[in-house]
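Section 3.1: Structural characterization of target chains.
Under the original work plan, the team committed to producing a structural model for every single-chain target entering the pipeline before any wet-lab resources were allocated. The record below documents one such target. The sequence was received from the expression subgroup and is listed exactly as submitted; it comprises 382 residues.
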Amino acid sequence: MSGSSLPAWAALTPPEKAALAHNERVLDVRLAQGPVAFADYMEWALYDDECGYYARREVFGARGDYVTAPLISTHLARALARQWTPILIAHGGSIMEAGSGNGQLAIDTLKALGEAGTLPERYWMIERSARLRAIARERVAAEIPQWADRVFAVADWPDAEASIIVANEILDALPAARFRMRGGRAHTLLVTRDEAGARAFAEGPEDRSATAALADLALVDGYESETLPQARDFLRQASDHLARGVILLIDYGFPRSEFYHPDRHQGTLMCHFHQQAHGDPLILPGLQDITVHVDFTAIAHAGRALGLDLAGYTSQGVFLLGLGIGEDLPTDEFEALREIQAVKRLTLPHEMGELFKVIAFERGYKAPLRGFRLLDRSRALA
């Protein structure tokens, strides 16, 4: 895999060409000092204050590179509000949303909770990108000014606790460690330059933690994939900020048996640029999204190790149907038809309904979560 040339669809406007040239020069300096672990490369490419993808680009919607569920319609937020209402009634407290982006989910959730009369004490929008935090603050002030005084956009976890912690598509964007199996051991994949000077992957030293974690899978030599060591840190931080209540994570991925399936021998890494999906993270550094799927078995084990109770695991479609998505369609026939299309996109298996999963942990909240009432697949994570 090489970053020496761009595919035909990656036509760049002049500002993007200038940004790419700048990022290439910065990356040249980094690689001149030696190979870089892929996790460090992904951290730089996505989050660097100067060169990172989230610092510079319009990433969401038709003008960006991908569309997330909150941007499709308000249905996700309204469904989640039905899940949050009994928790807020039982325990009160605040909501923390990690990876809040442009504030869409926060705004729509607060609108729904406001209608239900169950507003949280505070809504924390936790977002690393200063640009996205600024956009979110402006949107909150313009769209829900009556509740702006209880909404806070912050760069990191605040010195506070919450009864609800939610994250939609954040685990997939955590810097991933890539590996290649050799002799029964997982070797770290590094970003370097090949003999022709093109960016390429090279095997580095053994990743002992990955070797130990994957020991029971008998992966063959040459098998490449990813682990998400930062997911454990994320869950630890979420657990540290959870009072009595629920942590709920929505992302795309699989149980371990599917994640490391023999047929998935090149891993799950995926890139997005101008609505185009491809598998080369070494081109367009800082200009494209880089994600990996989530090993939900590892997430379940990490949560339990922190003393959290697994409250449920299922597909996004099943979860949203359990919460009654689509039950509040508008009376106008044209509007209703448009909303039905959004519901289908969120719930149908061949759309977002099956690839995206929902996992939840609880502490001190023993009531069943309504979203898992139709089907709970927690046994698949044993």
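The longest helix spans residues 14-32.
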